[in-house]
Amino acid sequence: MKTNTWSSATAAAVGALALLVTVSGCSGSSSSGGSGGSNAGAVPQSGAPAASPSVEGSPAAASPSAAGGAVPAADWAKWKLQPLPARPAAPADKPVKLTKTGQVPVISSIPTSDKVVFVTIDDGEEKDPKFIEMMNDLKVPVTMFLMDDAIKNDYAYFKPLQALGNHIQNHTLHHPAMSTKSAEVQKQEVCGDQGVLTKEYGTPPFLFRPPYGDGASTANLNNAVQQCGPRAIVLWHETMQIHDMQYQSGDKKLHAGDIILAHFRGPKDLKGETMTDMFGELLSRIQEQGFAVARLEDYIQAPS
């Protein structure tokens, strides 16, 4: 079990920048990502979340779609995968509640008793049509943190993924290490991407992920995020590499509520492997540990 899920952010996220720039998938390296940093900011909650009822159906035969239906076992077999456990229904009382104003929290996991993890995919450099086919078949929910420099040559690619119910969130215009930039440049990076993503996809992002996790605990970045619209900074607990995950926890295991970081990457960055190969490996690691994949935004209440 994780402890102190909502502890104050430390300087670890910033101190690890040199390592992160070298190894993080966000940096464009071929196979690995950096550590995500710690959580910060008290988020108003209404007590410990109750366990959500399970979706009906045998996880050995099928897994739920974004609409609550079942994904046929044949669709998993098509991708040479075992079905994931059925994810529980979204909690009626979301365990993370964001506010309209004030300091934004830093989140790397969700407090929940549901045996679920959350998959996030960053940047948007690789635009493999087979990945859209895979997602249409498997209906695995993901959150996309998109960066304008990576997506501006083909904004349309991400719309079929959005149409499946997957949210598009903010990841800056140009992917800088934010703590190395002035307060004004940080604001331009966040507000600029916010404007592009809102225009192209019709919905203002309410979550923000800093490149490399850098600067997450700094006042300058928090102020920039507040001014530009997102209401939380989202980090991660695991990073998907080509065939396996890099864990922050000492036991090298997934835990309920963990947020996993992956990237839109292809053969040139994955040593010849494809986006679907990498994502299949990610799902296999999750399935082996008995977790379902839930939608991050189903557990976070955006300000109304």
From TrEMBL:
Transmembrane segments: none annotated. It comes from the Bacteria. Residues 46-67 have a biased composition (Low complexity). Residues 30-67 are annotated as: Disordered. Pfam families: Polysacc_deac_1. The keyword Signal applies. The keyword Repeat does not apply. Residues 1-27 form the signal peptide. One of its GO terms (biological process) is carbohydrate metabolic process. Keywords: Signal. GO terms for molecular function: hydrolase activity, acting on carbon-nitrogen (but not peptide) bonds. Residues 115-294 form the NodB homology domain. This is Polysaccharide deacetylase family protein.
